[in-house]
Amino acid sequence: MRYLPSRPAATFGVLVVATTVFALLQAMVIPVLPEIRRALHTDARSVTWVVSGYLLSAAIATPVLGRLGDAVGKKPMLVTALAMLAAGSLGAAVAPGIGTMTAARVLQGAGGAVMPLAFGIVRDEFPAERVPSAIGVLAAISGIGASAGLVLAGPIVDALGYRWLFLLPMLMIAVTAVAAVFVVRASAGRAEPISWAPAPFLAGALATFVLATTEASRWGWASGRTLGLYAVSAVLAAGWLRLESRARHPLIDLKMMRIPAMLSGNAVSFLLGFAMFAVYAFVPQLLQAPSSTGYGVGATVTESGLLMLPLASAVFVGGLVTARLVRRNGSRRVVVSSSVVIAGCLAVVAWGYAATWQLVTTLGVYGVALGVALASLATLVVVSAPPSQSAVAGAVNLNARNIGGSVGTAVMATVVTARLDASGAPVGSGYTAGFVLLAVAMALATALAVAIPRPAAQPAGA
């Protein structure tokens, strides 16, 4: 195909829609798992694979497809990822049973490379002065989409049924994929070889780690299955590091990953994901808990989603202002400051609110800081990588955040449900301890963010 002239505005529109729909698909399923369980006549244990299968697939596919984007072209891999998302969404919408639903969600997870490929396309196609703000908006969309997914899930299910949680995104993705074919410019450059021998070790290490983490709250953190999977993951990771370090054309360049900004940025992203996904999973549960628990609001799924709306809006605001904040203060100060605010808001959720409006206001402040943190970290990592590896760098950063999210959600579930009342609901002290833990994680993220190189040491545009 002939190279099309660069059309940043149209290209950015396609990327915004693609990343928004992907983010929505991540979150909309979570609050309606009980509805899916009833509709597919399955049990609570099996329905969790609707989420776990997605996470496992995304953990494996995201870095691989990101690397392929750098090697053979970001445009064809973006279209491929969108096609997998659309096919997985259609499969989930028509799934007659939990097995088909899980398989469809695995296919959706394989489309998780949409986000890092979008970052790479921005790096390739946009003027240098626009790269930070464009990446910032796309990164913030991941947080907005997750929040909006929680808001929209209830009304969609109430009006149309849960299958439309997949049909509506499928239609949007299909249109976006066609638009990408005609709007996004094909990347210049020739395909390069990739050493594939380390790939099975990386896939196995990620899969066993995510599986052990997502199931640990059910199996027990000290159970033989959990510890055994962690041991297998460690062995496979060691094998991957050994092979990758010797590969002539590595899947993930370990030298690139040792760049100080990459190391610090990915570590902070892991902890940010640890807190962010736990908030998305457990604040709706907190709101939906009966008022008789002493902490719940007794909201419906739809009402709890509406109470999360200020959070979704605030994340977008944070993403919009990030580029200006980074230009004035540098990435290091911005990430440190936003991490401090997030930690403070989580502490308030744990201890300091007495009414629903105070909780919602705190979540709004949290959302602004979250949008700033997501945008500044994504920009930092992508512009710190060589241009030829921008997509895989973004993929590794996204994976760090998602894996952090799986760990945070699992740990939060263990802490919150450690003690139950007579009705089987968690006691209030469980939520307090859980949100204190999240605040501590973000305090640690603040300390790690201090290690991010100062602006003068970063590549231009950071």
List the topology elements.
Layout: H1 8-27, H2 33-39, H3 44-47, H4 49-72, H5 74-94, H6 98-110, H7 114-125, H8 131-160, H9 164-183, H10 199-219, H11 224-246, H12 254-257, H13 260-288, H14 301-307, H15 309-329, H16 331-351, H17 356-384, H18 390-416, H19 428-449
Helix pairs in contact: 1-7, 1-8, 1-9, 4-5, 4-6, 4-7, 4-10, 4-18, 5-6, 5-7, 5-9, 7-8, 7-18, 8-14, 8-15, 8-17, 10-11, 10-18, 13-14, 13-17, 13-18, 13-19, 15-16, 15-17, 16-17, 16-19, 17-18, 18-19
Low-confidence stretches: 1-5, 455-462
What does the oligomeric state look like here? single chain
CATH class of the largest domain: Mainly Alpha
The radius of gyration computed from the alpha-carbon positions, rounded to a whole number of angstroms, is 21 Å
How would you portray this structure in words?
There is one protein chain. Residues 1-5 and 455-462 have low confidence and may be disordered. The protein has 19 helices and no strands. The chain is mainly α and 462 residues long. The two termini are 33 Å apart. The radius of gyration is 21 Å and the shape is globular. Helices cover 77% and strands 0% of the residues.
